[in-house]
Queue: 4 jobs
Job 1
Amino acid sequence: MDTAEASPIGRLGYLTVATRGEEGPGEVVVPIRGGSETFTAYSALPLPKDQQVYVVEDLGGREVTVVAWGERRDSLLVL
């Protein structure tokens, strides 16, 4: 398996549990390795459930850092 294929960095996902910024993590589903996997998601700012996010850092142990990307998943615009 290619290392890039195994890394969540650079992938888009969506939050299934909102993040609370410095107050605590949420949860993100990311399409990876031919399926979808769940990671604990940290962000600098609070992000709502269903927000589309971009994974910017792999913290190890199924934890990632994310930033907002596009619109909420229930919007007409999904990047």
Job 2
Amino acid sequence: MGLTFCNVHFTKQPQRVVYISGSLMKSLKLSGKKNIRLRLGKDAIPAVVKPIKRAGKHLFLASGVQNAIKVPKSGSVYLRNLQNDEVQLGPLVGVLSDGPSSSGQPFGSRTGFIKQLLRQGSNMCYIFAFMPRDINWQQERVYGYFLTENGKFERKMVPLPDVIYNRLPSRRAETSPAINQLRDRFTRKKIPFFNWSFFNKSDIYRLLEGDSFASQYVPETHSSPEPDLIKDMLERHHFVYYKPSAGSLGHGIYRLTYLPKRGYFARYRRGGKNVLLRFSTFDSLMRQLRSRHGRSLHSYVVQQGIRLIEIDGCPIDFRFHMHKNGSNQWVVVGIGAKKAGRGSVTTHLKNGGSLLTPQQALGRVFGAKSDEVLQRAKQTAIRLAESLEFQHRHLIGEIGFDLGIDQDEDIWMFEANAKPGRSIFRHPSLRAEGKASIEHILEHCLYLSKFRRRDDM
């Protein structure tokens, strides 16, 4: 199957005719052909071929063709030569999200990121954003948000896309029957859909348990633990993290500590402030947790605490932002070192943490050995991503790992996120990595939609 890059133009003739320059006819191996099927996304129509004399690779679409398969705009795009004289324009890439549908910020806080994706992607594909309610399943059309040259959203009707990048923002919505049905419909139509859903902590730890390589990097972790198990872990490890299996952004996390002569301590965040409580007995600690969370404690996990490297007495962990690239390989695109705020149970920036580059953080702790430690952490992150993808049932193209390094230089994986936040890319030294992250998303869309040259892979 041939792949070439060409310039698409629109003409006002009402017929279903495509005019193809000689050079493009040759590239697509269409010389002598009178008819083709022209495809965009999941739609295709027959069209008459008329060769024209024009230098370069040009495709002119009569309005009868443009309107029939809803080609969204003119300009440079790929063409794939498929079997049976079928030619595909594209790829047509859909970014799935949701929001309040306000005219200026239709995707809420994600609007800026989606605009970046659309702006950067418009040079290599037809890319649009959409919400679940924008799909007309009867007509197999999507009323999508395209970005104009002046940065405004413009709504256009297009066929179902070749590939979908999932950035639905809500865990609750994502597990609803409507969204489950939506994903199943895309699967039945063989439309690649990544990332499938938010990760659940319990599921991730269970998946990695089955891999002897990956499991050595995961601290001892148990889902829905009974009080006796929590007490046993506190006596063995002296401190543990107790966190909701489906939580994010550090919400609902406790750091529980046991000091034999002083009792039990719970550190957590409430009302925007860090709280530290002391309990004389383990039972009184558990009563406090039950009074705050009730039955929801059944969906918690308990995890061995690790003595992380510190700066100024504050622990440091690392967000590794991983992507599949255009050759379907895992790569580390960006790393942010997160320093916990004083007294904070986590390193989240919203909880008073601060952001450093990994070189700044590791240089202060390991000095001349910092590059060696960082390279080993990168290799570990890639192997962990490969393991998680192998164990997972659905397409993954992006992972955010929260990794820690202890004083012995051992590496630990605390969490994996299928839809990682992008706060690390706000650091002035990580802006180039933020742009590279978007490039990798787009390149992986090209790969999944099969709009990649063999020599690019």
Job 3
Amino acid sequence: MASIPSPVVAIKINEWYKHIKRFNVKEAQMLREEVRKDIDVMEEDEQAVLYFQLMEFRHQLMTDYVQPSKEPLEKSDYLKAVEGQGKKMSAILEYYFNFFQGMYEFKNGEFIRAIVFYKRAEKRLEQVGEELERAEFYYKLSEVFYHMKQTHVSMYYVGLSYDTYKAQKSNSLYMIREINCLTVMAGNFIDFECREKALPHLMSALEKSKAISNKPMIVKSLFNIGCCYKGLGDFNRALAYFNQVILEGEPINAIELLLVYYELSLFHLSQKEFIEGERFFKRGLEEAKNRKNDLFLSLLMLLEILFLKTANLSEVLNSLEKLENERGYPYMEDLALEAARYYNENGRMDESVKMYEKVMYARKQIQRGDCSYEC
């Protein structure tokens, strides 16, 4: 059997990647199987093999995003193979390697490491000719900077990405990324304490999610709107949207169920509505255990100590120590502030001061995040 020219296989890998970016799981899987067969009979080409191995890893990331598993994503054998070969990659493959590695680190909550790899990829971005591919890269950067509370930087990158996706009116497939961009923009406005500016973006994201009948995105949008109304002090509307999250999210086992159970637990317990608070606390605890989510187990345990037990200071401090990481600091800030209010309302002023100190500590750690990665 005659060998297949490597450029032919590379073109097919490019098509595979297009389907991955559009979350076309069925089409991506079909091309994946075709490429696997072609690689076995392809003419010798190290760069094409490296490209294939990188795309295998990217395919796994896409699959895990569309159909989240209860087990955390393990580092792909294909990426290990690429790292272990020690062969010089072309500039474009170096871009993809660092870009995909950054996505992997972000998925695992290693935001600083993600930024390191994204910034390395950015140095090779001039090798990427396709405008939509650059838009994808800019979106990913905006996403990780948003999580690191680098609000101005995030807003800059998400603006670059959104303008490109919004221009793709002829292709509804890119509306998913348009919705993602609107969500990040809204999150940045919230961090700017401009929730009234965030709300129209979130409403637009919900409208577009409904237009493409994307249930997970509908649920995510409902949750985000609920959080925005909560921040605006409109608790009745917040609760209405949170309850919609449960109605829409339970049939698809949405990850937002865990988030909304936590939010409802916190809201009702802080309002001394203990029957409702305990009900959502138990549902949240069950959900966190089922998903093996250590972060939310820690958060819920802190709520239990604070509102359902004696709010012993040493126990609260021990619980807050479990949030000593990049993902945990924003929650540490919020819960330490909640604890400070609780102690203040109950006349426990010394303990309240300790909690305010924790709030400032958490804020400092968040702000220092941008000094911890290389340029």
Job 4
Amino acid sequence: MNQRKHGHRYNDDFKKMLVDLYHSGSSVKDLSSEYGVSEVTIYKWIKDFTPVEGVDGKEVTPKEVDAIQKEYLRLKQELEILKKAMAIFARK
């Protein structure tokens, strides 16, 4: 029986290595059988770690874009809180 580990966490270096191997010409099927990672997981890593051209020709990954968007929303919320606090203190 071929048993697979469920819930196994892989570090980003391992994920990037598999994505690099994919971009070097290895098929997802071969990588999956060699490293014991499902094809669906590898395709997700390819999506997450394949850079796209951003502003000023800099490359960013979709994962980095998501992190930037989350940080932007957090900062926007903090700004709204500060604006409300300023309005309260201005009245006093």
